Amino acid sequence: AMVRGASPDIRLAARKEHSLALVAALKMWSEKQLSMISSGSTLAEDIRYALNHWQGLTRFLEDGRLELDTNPVENAIRPVCLTRKNALFAGHEVGAENWALLASIVATCKLNDVNPAAYIAETLETIIDGHPHSRIKDLMPWRFRKTSSQPQ
Predict the structure, then answer these.
(1) Domain total for the chain?
(2) 99 three-class SS
(3) What secondary structure letter does DSSP report for 131?
């Protein structure tokens, strides 16, 4: 928590200082436990699983860009899961597809710190005013902040 939001270099340095020795000790402890328990036990299977995935489990010690938890991902997919559940009551497959499309637009706006209602309203007005299809990329939510006349 002390490095959350810090630069990748700072996070990596803190991880090497505070976590590297602990992770190495955990690996040694796991290997020792594995040698002392029945090889067919569930615990042995679990320890082997962790050791077989050790490179992936310890990658955070090599790359400061990696998050130690999945909270941002979980928060990002929660609306998708809720929409999937709510779409069961859309009444029709086309209605559910439209609902999912709109939910995707709203989620993308939120990820880019864009007001979804302002984005949708201004984007529809821009399209109606004849925005060329060849420049559709200009209408993406991540570009809205930079070019919008709407206050953010």
Answers:
(1) 2
(2) helix
(3) -
- Give domain status of residue 92, yes or no: yes
Residue 39: give the domain boundaries: 8-61
Reading the block at residue 30, the tokens are 């796991």
Is the four-CA dihedral 30, 31, 36, 41 of positive or negative sign? Answer: positive
The span from the CA of 84 to the CA of 79, in Å, is 8
Q: For residue 106, which of 97, 118, 124, 93 has the smallest C-alpha distance?
A: 118
Tokens 């590297």, residue? 20
Q: Is the pTM of this model over 0.70?
A: no
Alpha helices in the chain (DSSP H): 8-18, 20-36, 42-52, 54-57, 71-87, 93-111, 116-128, 141-147
- Terminal alpha carbon distance of the chain: 29
- Report how far residue 58's alpha carbon sits from residue 24's, in angstroms, rounded to the nearest whole number: 10
pLDDT tens-digit readout, 1-29: 578 888 999 999 999 999 999 999 999 99
